[in-house]
Amino acid sequence: MEWWHVTLLFVGVYLMGLFTGRAVGMTELLKKVQQSIASIDGGDYGWCEETGEPIGIPRLLARPTATLSLEAQQRRELKQKLYGD
Description:
Four Helix Bundle (Hemerythrin (Met), subunit A); mainly alpha
């Protein structure tokens, strides 16, 4: 993995936290970043873990640790809203 992959990922995660104004637990954030780095190393970063479709550059720029496409995330949130966790 190139050094700039990790740098971009960390910058994106940092900016995501700044712009959302949301306090993310550092342990949870570190875990997500480590999973994203493993995905980069494994060659499957940027692919939806639910559908196998590309997540999309705009979503990854907005949320570098995303593992679901926008559509898959919306479906998951709707199911949680309707049926609970």
